[in-house]
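Entry 14. Structure prediction run on the chain below.
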Amino acid sequence: MQIEFDKTILERYYIKDEVGTGSFGKVYKLQHLTKNKSFALKVDIRQKGSVLLEAKILADLQGGVGIPKLYKYGSTDQFSYMIVELLGPTLNKLLKQCKGKFSLATVISIMLQLITRIEYVHRKGYLHRDLKPHQVLVGKNPKIVYLTDFGLARKFEVNNYHISFQNSCPRVGNATFSSLNNHSGVRQSRRDDLESMAYMALYFLKGHLPWQSTQRINSNTKWQNIFQIKNHINIENLCFGCPKEFSILLKYCRNLKFEEKPDYNYIQSLFLQIQKRENLYESFFDWIEDEKSLRSPTTICEFSQSLSISNNIPRCSTINVENTRVGIKDEIKDDMNDKRRKKNRARTQTQMIIKKNKKENMLNIDIKIVEQGDNQLSSKTWFDESTYNSLDVTPKNIYPEIKNRKAWSNVLKVKKDKKICKVF
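Output returned:
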C-alpha cells in the first residue's frame, strides 16, 4: 500500500529512505530541512493502530535514560504515525557482527543498563511484555543501550492498584524469550519482563538457546514445542558454562509472586559480583572499534564454571605472543640499562667523595719533625730495634692526630738508621 504523507507532517522534513517494515506499517528515516539532524518516522496503516498507542506510552516515559525521545505523533485519515529519535542498530544485529556471541564483559555491561531501563518502565506503571534483542538498540553513543518498541506495553497499576490475576490470557510477545507464565496463559506482571531479560542474557553469552532449534510447523506448534523444552530443562543445565549468578537470577525471577515487586538492586548486585570476581572491564562493548582489539576468538579467561583457578588478568583482553615476547625483552633491556646507569652514577659519586677526603686529610696532617737535641723523643727512642716490632708502638699511636694510616704511609718514608726520621 502506497502511503501519501500529509504536508503538515513533512513540512520540516523529507524522507531519506526506508529503514524497516512490519505487518502493520513501515519505518522511514527523516532528514530535517534546515538542521543537520535525522529522525525516525514510524507509520501504521491503521488509523488507530498500535503506533498511536505506543506513542502515548512513550510520551509518559519521556525523560528516562535509555528511552527514545518522542518529537511528534498523531493520525490522519489513512494512518497513524510518530516521529522519534533515530537510533543505531539492534543488539540482534550487533550480535551477528560479533560472530554470534558477546563476551562476558559485554553481556554484564548490557544487563546493568537494561535492568535500570526495566526498573524505570515499571516505576512508571508499565510492563514491556515483548523483551527481545530486536527491541534493544544503541544510540549515537555506542555505549548507551536504549529500550524501544512499546507497542505491546500495558499498565499493570491502575489508580495505585495492581491488576488482577488471570490464567486464561492470550500469549503475547516472542516465544523464544517469553516467560513460562506467558506460555501457560497467565497474565503477565513485572516478573515476566525480568524472566525474558534473563533469557536474553543467556542468549547473548552462549549465542543460542536450546529451544531455538525447534521446527516451525505453525505458530501454535512452535509455542508448544518451546514451552515443553523451556519448562522441563534443568536450570543448571540451561546455564551450564555461565557464571552461577545466571542460574540464581532465573530462579529468582521464576519464584516471584504475581504482584510482588522485584528487588532490582539485588539483580544488579548479581551482575556486579560477576564483574568484580572476573576482573571485567566496566562499560565494555564488543562492537566498539577501540575495544575490538581486546576481544578475539582466543580471548583470555573465557569463562568456564569448571575452572577453579583465580585469574587476575582483565577478562576479554587478547594476548599476542610475539608482541608480548618482544615487549618483555625490551623491558628487560631497559631495566638492565637503568641498573647499569645507577651503578655507574653511584661509583662516580663514591670516587669523588674518596678524592675529597684524601685532599682534606693531606691538608690536616700536622707533621712534627724531631731533631736530635730536642727534649722530645728522638728517632732512636721511636724506632728502637728492640721495640720496633711491638704492636703497641706504631706511628698512629705516636701521633694520634694522624687519622689516616694510608695517608701517613704515602707522605712519610721512615728509615731505621738510628739518626733521624727523614721526610721526603
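Confidence is low (pLDDT under 50) at residues 296-329, 365-391, 415-424.
Filed with the rest of this week's runs.
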